[in-house]
Amino acid sequence: MLAFAGAFGMGMSKAGFSGVGLLHVVVFAFLFGARDSTGIVLPMLLVGDIYAVSTFWRHARWEYLRRMLPPALLGVFLGAVVMTRVSDAAYKPLIGWIIFVLTGMQIVRVTWPRAFGRVPHHTGFTWGMGLLAGATTMLANAAGPIMGLYALAIGLPKYELVGTNAWFFLTVNLFKLPFSARFGLIGPGTLLINLALVPAIGAGMLAGRWLIGRVPQRLFDGLLLVFAGVAAMRLILG
């Protein structure tokens, strides 16, 4: 049931409820282990990415994708290097700290959105955010808040944010596949789990599309961020 809840939240995050994006990271880290969960989650994320691209592809801003993808792909490579050097015992608190920091970033993003609108639009900022997003998505599949902060900084409207993110994550997640397969994180057993959970992703997508205009997203995201923060501390403290 927890796995279905995580997959359901994944679908909702791809439909526009960005605050749900940390839910699946926490749930699957607890169920399958911090490192192994990254390989289980990745194919399901790709299912959600394909749905998001098919729905919002017209809204993408390609100039921002061209700026962000090179540093993000380099960040994926650096994250893969870190994965080979961190022990299993240290990986769980590492994921916990990543989730904890991203939860804080998401809270700041929701509470003071104008603060990020004043961030200068320069190459150094783009490369810094791109590297961080790439490394974080490789280590924990949790780069959503980082991309949200970047979108606020450059002033992307809602639908352009969703469309740009859809193409960004589809490209980056496809790039991550060979690394996860090489590390033994994706295999026949994990793909069977993915197959069983695909209906929950679809249900989450449909629910997200239906709820996005009916539920105050700020309140909904806030409750989930509290949950993510508590769960992150649980991962850190063991």
Question: In a few lines, what is going on in this structure?
Answer:
This protein is mostly helical and 238 residues long. Helix content is 83%, strand content 0%.
Which parts are unreliable, with pLDDT below 50 for 5 consecutive residues or more?
A: none
> What is the helix fraction of residues, given as a range?
over 70%
Give the helices and strands as they follow along the chain: HHHHHHHHHHH
For the secondary structure, the number of strands is 0
Q: How many helices in DSSP terms?
A: 11
Structure description:
The chain is mostly helical. The chain has one domain (2-237). 83% of the residues lie in helices and 0% in strands. It contains eleven helices and no strands. The chain has helices spanning 2-14, 23-32, 34-56, 62-85, 88-111, 113-117, 123-140, 144-154, 158-182, 188-211, 217-237. The protein starts with a helix and ends with a helix. The model has no long low-confidence stretch (mean pLDDT 82).
Offer a few descriptive terms.
238 residues
Write the layout of secondary structure elements.
Layout: H1 2-14, H2 23-32, H3 34-56, H4 62-85, H5 88-111, H6 113-117, H7 123-140, H8 144-154, H9 158-182, H10 188-211, H11 217-237
